[in-house]
Structures
1.
Amino acid sequence: MRILLRAAYDGTAYHGWQAQPGVSTIEGEINKALSSVFEQDIQVTGGSRTDAGVHALCNVAVFDVDTRMEAGKIAYAVNTKLPEDIRIRSSRLVPPDFHPRKRESVKTYEYRIYRADFPMPVRRLYTFYTHRKIDVAAMGAASAYLEGTHDFKSFCSPHTQAETTVRTIHLLDVREEGPELVLIVSGNGFLYNMVRIIAGTLLDVGYGKYNAERVRDILDGLDRELAGPTLPACGLTLTGYRFVDFPAL
Amino acid sequence: MRILLRAAYDGTAYHGWQAQPGVSTIEGEINKALSSVFEQDIQVTGGSRTDAGVHALCNVAVFDVDTRMEAGKIAYAVNTKLPEDIRIRSSRLVPPDFHPRKRESVKTYEYRIYRADFPMPVRRLYTFYTHRKIDVAAMGAASAYLEGTHDFKSFCSPHTQAETTVRTIHLLDVREEGPELVLIVSGNGFLYNMVRIIAGTLLDVGYGKYNAERVRDILDGLDRELAGPTLPACGLTLTGYRFVDFPAL
């Protein structure tokens, strides 16, 4: 039977999602915990391969197991074996051919920027800090150019292994929550570093380095060199992961 | 000249505010950083002696130094010597007899409770987690009995060294922010563990262990045994510190 897990984690202490020999990863910890619960070698297949330092409220993963344990109870059993910076939020039975990366999905990320004269210690692990003045309205105007279906080659690390750099952004919103600026981006998939490069480019607009319309030219240029910097991983959190044509998690 | 500092910190890694030999404390780190900047032994006098694991957005401290450095620049100089989980937000000149604990002040604390089926890793260091159902309206009703000037002996650790257990709570509010329940409490001073015991007592009301009116009886009983548990330190943050009759920090 195939089980779908929904996982939340604080990425601070990990070398990202993907299991790698010799380093601590989210996937590696989940594999270890599941293998311990079921007393057999278990390896999950993850949904989003988040980078080192990136957080998640709801990444997904599937694995196969033969067990008499009720599917919904697996989350509780696995949590007893996981470090407290990783938590399985739910577990459920899915069809045996259910593959998270091969199914149509909508993922939502937040990128958080903390604006103040000095960085705030309790937010240092979850935001990117800047003391510079930001034109939020200009960032909002720039974000409109990125919504929709585009070739996001300019907003993708050259190290991508993706077959195509075309993606659809359903929503790109810029909101203010007190001292924090929150970029909310929702789409059918994201290229390597895409959200962090979008955040860096919009922030350049916010700093007044170039105007909002320039973002359209960056998009059209299909060249990573045109876009802004890749902002640090700690500001990024995967906040939503929904499968199209599959009941809500 | 006497300098007033406003400090923010993540209390997770520290044995509280107060300097103690052999352990890492917020005050100890600030003393070390100031002594390094001014190349002489400097010891601050703090405002609120927060416990191990308690966070602050704006605790205060004063110290004396003879320097030609502009008072406002001291914050920047000290921050270069501090670990990143402690930050000085501002520095300013105050009268030579300015003593933070001897001046009338209004302190504000937040106690945060995270409610969900599973704890959220990115909030684990800043909230108290519970999976139990909470009657928020009942907590709000109970909080009203604690506002005003009362003898808070029931809400104080027996280990207090305070001369009197009478304090004034200006505001005690219960708010919901998504999955988090936030108790906001503002007053002229707080006894040892007072906010954490108030939070534990209100939460007992929220759990339905007793009704709101019972909080009045607990207050009148003047006995720590009557009140609820001392909730964990991590949920507590000092969010405001204002001196009456002194310009805003």
Note: Helices of chain A lie at 26-38, 74-79, 136-143, 194-207, 214-221.
2.
Amino acid sequence: MLEHLIQKNSSKILLVVLDGIGGLPVKDGKTELEIANTPNLDQLAKESALGMHLPVDYGITPGSGPGHLGIFGYDPVEYQIGRGILEALGLGLTVRETDIAIRGNYATVEYQNGHAIVKDRRAGRIPTEENRRITQKLKESIRFIDDVEVFLEAGMEHRLAIVLRFPQALPENSALINDTDPQKEGRSPLEPIGKNEQSWRVADVVKKFLQRASEVLRDEPKANYILLRGFSQKPKLKSLEERFGLKACAIAVYPMYKGLASLVGMDVIDVPGQSIDDQISVLRELWKDYDFFFLHIKKTDSYGEDGNWEGKVKVIEEFDRKLPQILELKPDVLVITGDHSTPSVLKGHSWHPVPVLLKSPYVLGMTSGRFTERECLRGELGIFPAKKLINLMLAHSLKLSKFGA
Amino acid sequence: MLEHLIQKNSSKILLVVLDGIGGLPVKDGKTELEIANTPNLDQLAKESALGMHLPVDYGITPGSGPGHLGIFGYDPVEYQIGRGILEALGLGLTVRETDIAIRGNYATVEYQNGHAIVKDRRAGRIPTEENRRITQKLKESIRFIDDVEVFLEAGMEHRLAIVLRFPQALPENSALINDTDPQKEGRSPLEPIGKNEQSWRVADVVKKFLQRASEVLRDEPKANYILLRGFSQKPKLKSLEERFGLKACAIAVYPMYKGLASLVGMDVIDVPGQSIDDQISVLRELWKDYDFFFLHIKKTDSYGEDGNWEGKVKVIEEFDRKLPQILELKPDVLVITGDHSTPSVLKGHSWHPVPVLLKSPYVLGMTSGRFTERECLRGELGIFPAKKLINLMLAHSLKLSKFGA
């Protein structure tokens, strides 16, 4: 329905994602947002519409993929992004309609009568530096399998991402191939077998790749094999431009979020530097060029994952100090939220609803005094599914016409 | 989706159902929960996540069946339990895959040219004692119809439940048989006719049963016939163990709730006695043996149905006094809620959302001061569909893994 109501105009929407912003009490019954000293956010909260979004469903803890798809307006249950794609995006590889993305684990195998037997599924968790050296060797040795281009990128410890780029766009269901990880040591790696006609061809390329990789890695003491998991294709998502007429860009520092933004058709902007200041500079430079800006701040999540609530509080306070620079741009709609909660006490993502602040001339406001979990609960937006946030952003920027007469 | 995210662990969930707990103002604008003096619940409410669940849908008043299915995690619209099944469960009969359950009404008929004509559809609402005597006579006279075992149980006044147990499990749609109640006096009872091949065989047995029952009852002055309604089969529900890996038990006193718990695969525990103390004793004894405990307190509903708000207040206060014994067990997740509201002013079930309290280390808390309708509205859980309560219980007991990467 939403798509049919779109009326383009020149108003600008800025979506700020403080990754993993939602929290739980960490000290004196207060959450990270409640502890943080945030005079600018407090003032903004008083004038804004507040609420909480539910990323996927009650009780469901989202990964970064579903968390972002939701706030971009894509039902995260309907559009599931394969593990291989997320791994590839997270390591900075691009993925296209022609591609199969795969998660790889370096492993140690022994050959008995010519058959590989897995001795260590994680190659003794080799150091990341070691991984980089080995992956570089593979990159140089295997650039193509027949007419299929091979892209590799080292991850942490024993992990790597593999992208196989075919000459033409692949039909749907081309990645229906089983994981080759036998899950237990002492077993042979499984053969990659396609479940349908489309994936047979891909599986053939994968077999050749594994053969070549084993040869290149043969003399490695630990990482002499690669186990493959999460074969996947780029999900078919209509872009924000196609759906809502939004010319959108992403100002993110980490590869995963750039990748997720690219999946929904955002222009991904290079940020020279890693700081919030660097990101805001880019935002200012581009302000005339786009309708929709996705500004992704990562560190709130990182500290939450580490259980470091003081660190999370400091990032929130740092963002608060930068907020006036953002407000100076006078976005018609400014949303500040997260993709999910990352309470420091849980040291990980959680299922809890996520605070949302929406600034626009067309809100009630004055329901709450701060941008915190408890104050957002008192706000005018209530608790709503994340995938409806796009409706609210479009409506408040007057980009939606009336439904029915 | 939920089922795919299950990760078993040793945490324990206790679901306390105060039947019909939700209310409306009865005195000085206060509800039963607001009038009750509940120091223990008040303290617990401050530390817990609060909200309201919507049993079926806005404005929909649930029976006990849909009310409980919802909070057990089964969509009450998708899984509808036949009236015959509920009547049988309520009167303490068991129902199996081999069974057809039917609601019966004793009626008065006159025979004209060998044809029965209904004179009183409720046999003058005979006293329950009279019903018991007559039903006992039937039980002794009709144990089998061919190879089908017959179970009967007297209800209140003119009502009874009938279970026909066939030698083998019945195929689906075996209970598609019309009610025999002609709805008006002066008419003949309707023939029970199967609507499909599966139900023809059942209808034949029913005809023979009616014939035999009429003979046994022929000399009764009032209850000389049985009208049948609500032919039904046991619904196919996956158990809580199959769906969520939960080893679950029910500590309930009334047959209906034991029966509903058994439908979702809970072990139904015999409680020696009727009091809340008796139920808590059993709970303590079994604490090591299960992951999920359903503790059902009936009397809140009974007093609500009678319009006796003082009685309902007293049961709430009694439960409050027992609460510390329950808390001593240190459940990882404790939920206190109802299956529906039963406001004393309505003397029956109602459509109003039902207060929910969820205690866990992973909540915000401090949103509200008491466990009442108005205070629950201020809580962090918002108003949510009853069927999502299981998501919240599983998430807070850390039994759900992350969705997507």
Note: The mean pLDDT of chain A is 96.
